[in-house]
Amino acid sequence: MDLLRVLQSPDLDVRRKCLGIALGMVTSRNVEEVVGLLKKALARTTEAEAEKTPGTTEYRQLLIQSIHVCAIKFSEVAASVVHALMEFLGDTNNPAAVDVVAFVREVVEKFPNLRGAITSRLLETFGEIKSGKVFRGGLWIVGEYCSDAPEIEGVFEKIREVLGEIPILAAEQRLLDAATAAAAEDGADKDKKETTKSSAPRVLADGTYATETAYSNNGARLEAVKNANKPPLRALILGGDFYTGSVLAATLTKLVLRYGEAEGVDAKRANSLRAEAMLIMTSLIRVGQSQFVTVPIDEDSQERIMNCVQTLASAELAKNTRVREMFLKDTKAAYAKMVAHEEKKTAEKKARDTKKSAIQADDLITFRQFTKKATNEGLDDYELEVSRATGAAEVGSSVISNLSRVVQLTGFSDPVYAEAYVKIQGFDILLDVLIVNQTTDTLQNLVIEFATLGDVKLVERPTTHTLAPHSFHSVKATIKVSSTETGVIFGNIIWEAGTSETCVVLNDIHIDIMDYIKPAYCNEAQFRSMWTEFEWENRVNVNTTITDLRTYLNHIMKSTNMSCLTPEAALSGDCDFLSANMYARSLFGEDALANLSIEKIEGTGNIQGHVRIRSKTQGIALSLGDKITLAQKEVAPLA
C-alpha cells in the first residue's frame, strides 16, 4: 500500500512501473485494499480538474487494466469491481471503454454465477454507449450469455430502444417528407408576400443582366435529417458502421434460436420474435442502400446480415443442428479457447520467472566505475566464477558465440594488430582490445582513441602504454548505450616510434540492435493502439528460398528476437497463406511491432508477401528491416 502512494506522481511511466510492481505483490489478504485504492484513483480521473490534465485518459486506461488483472486473479473482488467499471462503458475515451467491455466479457466467461447481474447492468448502459467497438462487445456478450426467456425479451426491448423506430428507412423518409412539406408551406407564404415586388431584370455595373439561380434545398433538409438527435445504435448505423450492424444481426439470430429452446415459450411468441429480428435485419440492409447513410453498406456486412436472415427464414430451422451449433456453441467455444490460451501463456511466463536465479537482499552490488584499475582483472574472474557456480552465466556464452563477437580492428600487415571482444552487459558495452606490436621497435605512448556516433557515449578512455617489440597488451574501454538507435564506434591507434608519431585507423564497430531487443507480449487492443500511434514504418518484401510458411515465420522470429502474438490455433492447419503479428521491446522500454503477411504461390511453391515494421523511433524500424533482409538470405533450419 505504501508503494501505491507513488501514483500521486504526474509522470505516466512512473505510474506504470509502480502498478507493475504492485500487481506482482498483490495477495488474497491485501487485494481488497489494493482494489479499493485503485477504484478511488479511478474515480478521481473523472473529476473536472483531472480531465484538463494531460495524460489523464492514458492513466485511466492503465488503472482499468490493473483492476482487470486483480479481479481475474482474485474472484472475490470481481463482483464489486465489475459494476463500478461498467460506468465507464459510455466514456468518450474509446480505449478505456474498450478495456472495460473486454474485462466484462472475461468475467462473465470465468464466473458463471455473476452472469445474470452483469448482463442486466450491461443492458442498462446500452443507451449511454457511444463507440461501435464497445457496442459490438456488449452485443456479443448478451447474445452468448442471455439464455432465459425473460432475459432474451429484455434484450429485444433494449435493442428496440437504442435502435429507434423500425423500419429505419421508412422512419427516416417520413422525417424528410415532413421537413419538405414544412419548407414548401414556408415557401408558399413567402411567395404571396413577394407578389407585389417588381420582376424587372436587373442590370449589373458592367452592363450585363443579373441572373438568379434557385438552388434546391433538398440537400440541406437531408443533412438536417441526418444530423437530428437519434438513439445511439441508430446513429452508428446511419453513420456507416455496418460492421456493428452485422454483429447485431448475429446477436439477434442467437437470441431467436435460444428463445425457441427456452422452457414455457409457445410457438406463436417465438415466431413473433423471429419476425421482428428479420425485420430489423432487412431494415439494416435497406437503409444501407439509401441516401440516409454516410457510407453505403459494404458487401461483407450485407452478406453476413443476409446469411442471418436466411438462417431464420429457413423452414427446417429446428432440424438444422449444424447451423444451431455454429451460432450457439462454436463462437462461445472459440472465446473460451482463447481465454484458456491466455491463461496457459501467463502460467508459462510465471514458471519461467520463478526459475530465474534471484539475487539475495544482502548480496554485494559491484560498481565497475568505482573500482580501482588494478582490481579489474580479479573482479572479472570472481564474477565469472560466481556466475558459473550459480548457473547465471550469459545465454550463448560458448566458445563459438564468444568468437562471433570478436571484431578485427586493423589489418594483419599493419605495424600494430588490434582486435576487440565486444561484451554486452545491460546498458554497457565492454570492449576488451588486444594490441600486438608486429614491429621490432619499441612503441611509446601508445594509446587507442575511441569516438562514437549515435546514442552511445564513451565512459572510460584507455590510458597510454609502452609496447616492447613483438609483445602484446590488453586494453579495456566502456561504452554507455542510451537507446537502440544505430550506433557506431570508431577510432585510431597512435604511438611514438623514435621521433615520429604514427597513426592507424581502426575499423568501425557497429552496435547490434539484437543485443538490446527482447521478446515481449501485449494483448490485441494494446497492439492495435500502438500500431495506430507509431508513425515510423518500414516495409520489407519477402525474398527467400524457404518454402514452408511456418518455417519462415519461426526463422524471422528467431532472427529478430520477436514473439508471435497470434494464437497457436490461428496458425495451425494447412493453408497457403499466413498472417501473424509480432512484438518485441528494447531494454530501454521502446516498442517494436511487426506484421507478417505471406502466401505460397501455387505451382512454384515459392513464398511472397511482406513484413511491415512499426516503431516510435526510426532507428528500430530501419535496423529490424535490415536484419530481416539479411536473415532472408540465410538458409533457415528445418522446423
TrEMBL record:
Residues covered by the Coatomer beta subunit C-terminal domain: 361-496
A Pfam family of this chain: Coatamer_beta_C
GO-annotated biological processes: endoplasmic reticulum to Golgi vesicle-mediated transport; intra-Golgi vesicle-mediated transport; intracellular protein transport
Keyword terms: Cytoplasm, Cytoplasmic vesicle, ER-Golgi transport, Golgi apparatus, Membrane, Protein transport, Repeat, Transport
Subcellular location, record wording: Cytoplasmic vesicle, COPI-coated vesicle membrane; Golgi apparatus membrane
Highest taxon of the lineage: Eukaryota
Domain Coatomer beta subunit appendage platform: 502-628
SUPFAM superfamilies linked to this entry: ARM repeat
Membrane topology: Peripheral membrane protein
Domain Clathrin/coatomer adaptor adaptin-like N-terminal: from-to ranges: 1-192
GO annotations of cellular component type: COPI vesicle coat; Golgi membrane
Any GO MF annotation of the entry: structural molecule activity
Protein name (Swiss-Prot/TrEMBL): Rhizoctonia solani AG1-IB WGS project CAOJ00000000 data, isolate 7/3/14, contig 17119
